[in-house]
Structures are given as structure tokens and as C-alpha cells.
Amino acid sequence: MAVLNGKNILLGVTGGIAAYKTAFLVRLLVKKGANVKVVMTNSAKEFVTPLTLATLSKNEVFSSFTDEKDENSFKEPQWNNHVELALWADFFLIAPATANTLSKMANGACDNLLLACYLSAKCPVYYAPAMDLDMYQHPSTEETFKKLESFGNIQIPAAFGELASGLVGQGRMAEPEEIVSFLENDLLKKLPLRGKQILITAGPTYEAIDPVRFIGNHSSGKMGYAIAEAAASLGAEVVLISGPSALRLENDFVKLIRVTSAEEMYNAAHEYFDTCDVAILSAAVADYRPSEVASEKIKKKTDDLILQLTKTKDILASLGEIKKSQFLVGFALETENEEENAKLKLKKKNLDLIVLNSLRDKGAGFQADTNKITLITKDNKVLPFPVKPKKEVAKDILEYIIEQTNA
Ligand code: CTP
């Protein structure tokens, strides 16, 4: 599950015996590709050292509003900005969460950096309670849990077992592995493209002239690959049909189908179209292919060589003809009368959305890492976007699709 990959996690550690387990927890989260920053209370330092957590998280550990003053330096202590820390986080995980800290959270107390981060956090907050059985069962703890639930905080339930006091019951912090899978399942559940199947075409196609030569184009596949990765990280099941491209996928959850020619791309797209919810055709498909493919390498015999070309099948148009409930997205690469041509394509190919690139725009085009797009919708709305990295562009396109398909 790649759902934690690249996530910014602020881990709050409070002073309970289970704090020693946070060393494993940080390691697991980092292994999953998350960026972890730790904020801990002073009493947590009795159970696990900031050095351990800083080493494992590869980040500075925060515990007070200012850095400690270094006797050997003239540098003034630095202010640890809790608002910045809380804004950095995709989510705040408090583990272990003691009865004391939970009660302060429920009542808006703010006498340490961790609580200030909690009060500043706009992101989801998860907490893993850790306390003794009697404390866990106390009516005031029950009240606290209810209050935190009403704030939208998510509890990772404590486990049943032997507690540090020798009592047996509920109160033990969930094991680090359980916390990680709880987070993964919860995040997965909330992904906006969960349960959706998305078909994407990307890259160029190569049309053979003879066994060693072909007609191709400069498409790198970057835009389509970025959409595939972004869609998978939003929970979609993605099939990426790619023409020849040197790119590698970072996300293991994309099913990659490699093809070479327009004909192969056509067949693969038709194989997967029926079951998909959304199809995004970003490939730069050759419009023509040599009518005959020479079986041997063509020798340099004459001054002129005339190649006869035949039109390839238009994959996008063919899907537009047979589509049922699928949301069909095409790309238009234009050099003149951009908007008008794109609108015509949208209509002619029976699309729900067309993504217009103009080769006249700086920062747009085939090999670049950036793109400048204009989305044109079925009801002729024109939505221009500024130049952005292709990964961001991918998110913009998907955001619009999510908005439309959930509407
Ligand atoms: N497309 C396709 N199959 C083709 C040609 C194009 O699926 N044989 C798709 C592209 O993936 C893109 C859209 O059609 O989503 C528009 O491609 P573009 O080359 O801009 O338009 P064409 O329809 O080929 O028209 P023209 O080249 O005349 O502009």
C-alpha cells in the first residue's frame, strides 16, 4: 500500500511507557516513504530520547517553544513555530496519547508545544491512547473520548492485554504495525478515486517503415505517466497503456501495458475500456503509418524515396462512439485557433472534457517537465491554468474529473 508514501506526518509523543515503541513506529512510517517530524512533551523524554527519534526520523525533534540556548554559541534560541509545523503536516498522529494530554486536548489547554500544534492543526488528527485500565475506564476518560470524537479526531483503539501496572485489560497502546495499518486503511477509505478504474494512454507510437526504422514523435509520456501516478495515489485502479517511453513508474499500483504502434494501442485501449469509469487519452498517437512495412531493411538505392502513408484508427474517437457511462477525456495539441479547434475535437469525438495544450505557450509541450493547460468542458466552459509542473497539472485534471464524476 503506497498510501503513506510522501505523506508529511507530525508525530506527537507524550509521556507514557509506550513511548519507547515510537522508535519502531517512526522507522515503520519512514520505511513506508512518509516524512516524519516529531514533537514530544517533556515527560515523553523520560521514556525515549529525542536523539533516537531524530536519528530515525532524519529530522529535528521539537519539544519546546524555543530551541535550547547553546552555551558555546552567540546564537539566540530559535522560535519553534507550532503553526508552521501543524500546517506542514498532512496529518497529526499522537502516539502514545496519555490521559493527561487527551484531557488537555479535549479542553483546549495549551501548556506545551505539542498541544499548541494540536490547537493549530487543520489536518486530520489520529491518536492512540495508552493508559492503565482504571484510567481508561474512568468516566472522565470516556467523556474525553466523546469530546475528541466530536472534534473529528480519530481514535486508534487501545489493545487488550497486560498493562505496565500488572492489570489486565484495555489500555495498551496499539502496536506500531497496527497503528500503521489503521492509518493506511483509514486513508485508503477516504481516497476520492477509491473503487474507480481509470484507463490512461501515454507516450508516442512508433509506426514501422522497415525492421529498423519507424515514424515517431517527440512525446516523452511525462504527462500521461504523471496522471497515472496521481490517479493511483488517489486510490484508483489504473491501467496505463504506454507507447515507447524511457520513463519508469514510481507507483507499483499502476498496471503498465507497453505497446509500440497505434494499432497495438487501439487494441489494448478497447480491451480495457468496457470496465473503466474514466478514460484519459494523453498519448501522441501517430495519425499515419506506412501503408507497407518492408520486411527487409530498405537499401539506399535511389535519390528519392516515396513512402505511402495510411491513416491510423483514431482511438479516442472510436471510444467516444461506444462509450456508455465512461467519462472520456482527450488531449488537443494545437498551434493555432487553439480553443476553437479543441472545442471541435471535443464535440466530434464525443468527449466529456478536453485538455488543451498550445505549442505557442512557454512551458508547455512534449519533453518539458512543466505544462500549461486549458480545460474545456462539455458545456463549453473554458478553464485556463498557469504553467505548473506536470505532476501538479495531473492533479488539476483529476480534481476536475473527481468533481464532475461525483456530481
Ligand atoms: N488520438 C487517438 N488516436 C489517434 C489520434 C489521436 O486516440 N489516432 C487522441 C490523442 O490521444 C488525443 C486526441 O486524440 O487525446 C487529440 O489528438 P490530436 O493529435 O491533437 O488530434 P487529431 O484528432 O489527431 O487531429 P489533428 O492532428 O488534425 O489536430
Automatic annotation (TrEMBL):
Residues 1-197 are annotated as: Phosphopantothenoylcysteine decarboxylase. CTP binds at residues 287, 297, 331, 345, 349. Binds 1 FMN per subunit. Its cofactor is Mg(2+); FMN. One of its GO terms (biological process) is pantothenate catabolic process. PANTHER family: HOMO-OLIGOMERIC FLAVIN CONTAINING CYS DECARBOXYLASE FAMILY, PHOSPHOPANTOTHENOYLCYSTEINE DECARBOXYLASE. This is Coenzyme A biosynthesis bifunctional protein CoaBC. The gene is coaBC.
